[in-house]
Each structure stands twice: as C-alpha cells, then as structure tokens.
Hints:
49% of the residues lie in helices and 12% in strands. The chain is of the alpha/beta class.
Amino acid sequence: MFHESSGEGYATTAPVALVVADSVEAAAEALEALDLAGCKGRKPISFAEASADPGNFDGLDLILVETAAAPEALLEIVLARVDTVARERALGIVATVLPEQIDVAAAQLLGSRSQILCNPVRAERISAIAGAKWHPRAVMDDVNRDAESVRLRRLSEEVARIAETLARLTRSEDAEPRSVRDRGSGYRGPDTGPPVEISAAEIRAVIRARRMRAQFFADELFADPAWDMLLDLFAAQLERRQVSVSSLCIAAAVPPTTALRWIGTLHEAGLFERQADPTDRRRAYIGLSAKGLEGMRSYASAVKRAGLQLV
C-alpha cells in the first residue's frame, strides 16, 4: 500500500511532489528519493487517476512519473497531460521510463523542464530531483521570498552533495560536463574558407573507428556522448535519414539515462531539434538544428582544408 510522506521536519514551503505510478516498487523508490532530496511527497496516484482528474495536479512543484507497469493506452495521455500542466504552472518533471518507452516519452516530454531517466539508480533519481526546474509557489513578502531563495539554493547544494556521494558509492553516476551549456553561442570560431564537400560515408568511417576503440580499451575511457551523437546526426542528415531518440541513445554509447541527459543539454543549447513523425505522434525524431548543422559542416570543412583527419 502506498503511504504519503509524513512531512515531519519539512518547512511549510518545502517542494511538494506527486508520483504517478502503477508499480508499487517504482512508487516506493520515487518516494524514497523525494525524502532524500528534502521534498514532500504526496500519496501516489495511478495512471487512471492521473488521466481522469486534472485536480490531482493542484498545489504541486514537481511531478514524478514512473512508467513501469503503466497501461499502454494511458501512457501517452498521461505524459501529454503532465507536460501541459507543467508548462502552464511552471512545474518540474522527472519521468522514469523503460528502454522501449523512450520514444513515447521523448515525444511528449523533451523540454527544458523535463528529465527522462531510464532504469536509474538511486543517485540518478536524487540528482534529477535536485536539478528539476520549478518555481516556488507564492510567498508572503519580499523578505520571505529572499529567505526562501537562499534556503532552496542551500537545499539544492545539499541534495547535489548527497547525489555525488551516492554516485561514488554506486559508481553509476556520470558527471555532465557543462562546456556546451556554459559557452553559449560563442564557442565556434569564424569560418575561414569555402565549404569542403563531406560525405556520409566519411562520417560513418569516423564513427566505426571510434567504436573500434572498445575492442582494446575500456569504454568509459573515451566516453564522449555529445560528439558521438553529433556525428551520428550529421551522417543521418547527409543520408537524408531520420533518427529516433532511442536510436540516438544507442549511438551515444553510454547508459540511456546519460544519453537522454545529453540530448536535453544539446537541445537546450540549440544544436538539436525535435522532429515530429507525421504518421505516428507517439514517436519523436531528433535532428541537427540549423545551428548544429552549420557547426558540423564548418568543422568538417576546416579539418579537411587543414589536411587533417576527422576524429
């Protein structure tokens, strides 16, 4: 049976979260992560309840969706409703999905307020909750608002510290480099010459060579999911082929949750764009944005003009 967190020890302004789950085990794991993150979890609701009554989402800061055991007929409906509610009310979303549900989830939740996890460990759940984007509900005055801002910042720092500690213990939390996010739009130098023709076969050869390293060295020594995905999407663009989110996760050569986090990062950086499937709204494709494509073409041209090999 599900139990609502008691709330003992929480300030009245502690983030309030709702778990949507049809799996008792998944709901329990979500509530545990919320407690460790300093959030107050309400009694979980089922997918049927989430689809039937929008009032279930009133008074929240964060929504956790656990898709294990979710009815297929309700999965898309609930994810769409959660996304709509989160956008309207500035809530954060953390969705935990199975590998076969990645495309359905990404079609609805790929955005700056959503984090999609795939078979996560506890550290990943806590880290996602700590990083969830949400705005606190109204406070009484400016003094209280400033105090709340400080408290939330300290809470976030503490949760991040807990997540990092758990990650070291479980050896399963991958750090996310911030170079893409921090450098903004000014990280690429100016183009210094005319574009040079580049073929999909050349890019695929680079990808094959990168994958061959795993035959001789441990995978984690050369983990570079951002670049692997950029290469894969660049080759697909040259081939005029679409790439699903799940396929791109495979191309990243890292655990799905890490790949999904990077997809979100590169999407926010303006290098990736979501492309709808006109024949199946449950599927989302990912492609290079105009900015991403220009960057890859310019890089490839600069490398070839210099007489170097793409890597």
